[in-house]
Automatic annotation (TrEMBL):
It is a peripheral membrane protein. Coiled coil: none annotated. This is chloroplast protein-transporting ATPase. The keyword Nucleotide-binding applies. Keywords: ATP-binding, Membrane, Nucleotide-binding, Protein transport, Translocase, Translocation, Transport. It comes from the Eukaryota. Residues 1-443 form the SecA family profile domain. Its EC number is 7.4.2.4. Its main location: membrane. GO terms for molecular function: ATP binding; chloroplast protein-transporting ATPase activity. Belongs to the SecA family. It is found in: Membrane.
Length: 734
């Protein structure tokens, strides 16, 4: 069936005339996400598929991030595209930007080797942190060769292959940096076609699990390493190799086959690193003898054990032995072994073998490192300019560490992803290159072309800085709300029982105030107020609790009561009760209860947010009466329940937290939708940020109001029907 026919069938029951139709909006979201997943999210670039799951690749570090998922249905669209099981959409329960998170710390500092770029201004503007350059320990003698440009991708990759081959024949170690899993494996296939041994380090598990081993030998003679972005790898490439890592590999290769017959899982243990083309490490007679002894001990332990050792268990035992060797040292190990006769523990045998092999590896790596230095050190090849010069510098910085010699070269194509993304005038560059050469694999080092490419990279950095700046400005709105919510949660969690009760009382008074102020106008006389609706809304708050109380109260009763107050002119506020209206149960007994009532009355009198008028005092008395009545009814229900105070406080805390967390979660979703939609208002010559602030504030006020209302309803109904209270939460959650 043709795709457009299938789409027509799916949308045939939708009303296309009304763009507010929820089904149409949902369908539009699905179609948009499907198009994004198809065109913008590429396998082995933005994500990989492993064990039936789509896993995100961090484009800055080249690492898989298994716990991350794209939001707004994008991840589900990618799963549908790959034919995977579609997981539930991720729910945001809390969020914070890195910038806002860092600002929470009283002191902030950092260390990096790439801050002296365009990002220096960003550090100062965002975090008020100047960048101070620390002199290098040893002079930098690395040679950064000019950028070479190619007209086509094919020409670039052919030249990269030739450059790697020439360096391999010379004996220099080479590190090739790529921007994606796809490009690293493409280059790997090119090198295989020329029988050039190499190792690949990218987000695929069979390579990522062996990251330390691959990096350990990346500085050895004839070593060729293809890696995705090197940011965050955190391991120096030592010329001549890393003796500790090489010694560990030798011990594992000699012991693990005898300790476990399991085949290692490539997904978790990684694919074995390639040693082809590398010089063989010469082990002395003592090392060979101790390795043989450790292998015999491993074989003996394997046969004597009733249960078969798994590969993971065997590897853990070897790692523990190596850690012990690093802690104790060779001399103490020899003393421990000398105290035992023929057979000594497997752990000691492996540790002693490792310590002896390490000595041989150190000698070999030192000699080979000196030889590599005479050849020119590590040669780094960058196959594309990144969207930030910092990442390019991180790749360059792998060569020439601690005063070592080295060289770097960037080879770029006009068809690279970054140039296509930021609309480089490739026709101009291609015409310029075609005037110089006809071959697509001929490198061009023209200053005009290179200047154009570097200028585009600077524009890309400015573009992403603008995105981050815009994100921070939008998050400042949410940060104020976040601080308020988190401080409120902290009061609920850490406050004593009295503070928790006072919070409930304030919620009840606020709910009553909203109902009253929504039905009365202090600038108009009481006879114009909608008192019937007011009584109905108040009675509906507590289910049967208040309905029974006000079932015989009519609008006329409340009207005459208010007129009577107007005739009297003055009332006693402390024990105020509306004439001819029900008296609050038990009134307010105890100094704390009376103090709470007085504080709420004072807050009403000084409230500048509510509407003022000739009848403001009458409105405030109405607020006080119904607020006190609701709280007194609640306290009476608590007394009748005969529950312990600890149990009651627990229920109150649960209601407060559950409603707050639930509605805050919904608020975050609404704010994310608002931030995505508000940019459209710029077409109407409105400032999107200002519009976001206005609507975000309105959303937040509405969320707090809903939190108070739902909490009060849940608590009032809980004592009469716990199941009914639970239904309130479930309905609001849906």
């Amino acid at each position: 069936m043709e795709p457009h026919v299938r789409c027509d069938q799916l949308t045939s029951n939708l009303d296309m005339r009304h763009d507010s139709d929820p089904k149409l909006v949902e369908c539009f979201r699905f179609v948009t996400n499907a198009l994004k997943a198809k065109e913008f999210y590429r396998r082995d670039v933005q994500y990989i598929v492993r064990n039936g799951k789509a896993l995100i690749i961090n484009e800055l570090t080249g690492r898989v991030e298994p716990k991350r998922r794209w939001s707004d249905g994008i991840h589900q669209a990618v799963e549908a595209k790959e034919g995977l099981k579609i997981q539930a959409d991720s729910v945001i329960v809390a969020q914070i930007t890195y910038q806002s998170l860092f600002k929470l710390y009283p002191k902030l500092s950092g260390m990096t080797g790439t801050a002296k770029t365009e990002v220096e201004k960003e550090f100062l503007k965002m975090f008020k942190m100047p960048v101070i350059e620390v002199p290098t320990n040893l002079p930098n003698i690395r040679v950064d060769l000019p950028i070479q440009a190619f007209a086509t991708l094919r020409g670039k990759w052919q030249y990269v292959r030739e450059e790697v081959e020439s360096m391999f024949q010379l004996g220099r170690p080479v590190l090739v940096g790529t921007t994606s899993v796809e490009s690293s494996e493409y280059l790997s296939d090119l090198l295989k076609s020329r029988n050039i041994p190499h190792n690949v380090l990218n987000a695929r598990p069979k390579y990522a699990a062996r990251e330390a081993e691959i990096i350990a030998q990346a500085g050895r003679k004839h070593a060729i390493t293809i890696s995705t972005n090197m940011a965050g790898r955190g391991t120096d490439i030592i010329l001549g190799g890393n003796p500790k890592m090489l010694a560990k590999e030798i011990v594992e290769d000699n012991v693990l086959p005898f300790l476990s017959h399991d085949t290692p899982d490539v997904e978790t243990e990684g694919e074995s690193t390639s040693h082809k083309g590398l010089s063989k490490i010469k082990l002395g007679p003592s090392s060979l003898a101790l390795l043989a002894k450790a292998a015999i001990m491993a074989k003996y332990v394997h046969k004597s054990e009733s249960n078969e050792w798994s590969f993971q268990k065997a590897k853990s035992a070897v790692m523990e032995s190596i850690e012990m060797s690093n802690t104790i040292g060779l001399e103490k190990l020899q003393e421990r072994v000398a105290e035992v006769t023929e057979m000594y523990p497997l752990c000691d045998a492996i540790a002693l073998a490792y310590a002896t092999v390490l000595k041989d590896c150190e000698i070999h790596c030192f000699d080979e490192g000196a030889e590599v230095k005479t050849l020119g050190g590590l040669h780094v090849i960058g196959t594309s300019l990144h969207e930030s010069r910092r990442i390019d510098n991180q790749l360059r910085g792998r060569a020439g560490r601690q005063g070592d010699p080295g060289s770097t070269r960037f080879m770029v194509s006009l068809q690279d992803e970054m140039f296509r993304k930021f609309n480089l005038d490739t026709e101009w560059a291609v015409r310029l290159i075609s005037r110089i050469t006809d071959g697509e694999d001929i490198a061009i080092e023209s200053n005009a072309v290179v200047k154009q490419l570097l200028g585009l990279q600077i524009n890309a950095e400015k573009y992403y800085f603008g995105i981050r700046k815009n994100l921070v400005e939008f998050d400042e709105v949410l940060e104020v709300q976040r601080k308020h919510i988190y401080s409120l949660r902290q009061v609920i969690l850490s406050g004593d029982s009295e503070s928790c009760s006072e919070q409930i009382f304030q919620y009840m008074q606020a709910v009553v105030d909203e109902i009253i102020l929504g039905n009365v106008d202090p600038q108009k006389p009481p006879k114009t107020w909608d008192l019937a609706k007011l009584l109905d809304e108040l009675a509906s708050l507590g289910g049967n609790l208040l309905t029974e109380t006000f079932k015989e109260t009519q609008e006329e009763d409340l009207q005459s009561s208010l007129e009577q107050i107007l005739r009297y002119g003055s009332v006693e506020v402390d024990n105020f009760v509306l004439p001819n209206m029900p008296v609050p149960p038990n009134s307010f007994r105890g100094i704390r209860k009376r103090t709470s009532s007085a504080m709420r009355w004072f807050a009403m009198c000084v409230d500048d947010t509510s509407k003022k008028g000739r009848y403001t005092n009458i409105v405030n008395l109405l607020r006080k009466y119904f607020g006190d009545f609701l709280i007194a009814t609640y306290l009476e229900v608590l007394q009748e329940s005969r529950h312990h105070d600890a149990y009651i406080r627990g229920i109150e805390r649960e209601a407060l937290l559950k409603t707050l967390d639930m509605l805050w979660k919904d608020h975050l979703v609404n704010m994310n939708k608002l931030s995505s939609a508000v940019n459209v208002r710029s077409f109407g010559h409105r400032n999107p940020l200002e519009e976001y602030k206005i609507d975000g504030c309105r959303f937040f006020i509405s969320m707090l109001s809903a939190t108070r209302r739902l909490t009060v309803e849940a608590l009032l109904r809980y004592w009469s029907s716990p199941m009914e209270s639970e239904e309130i939460f479930n309905t609001a959650d849906q």
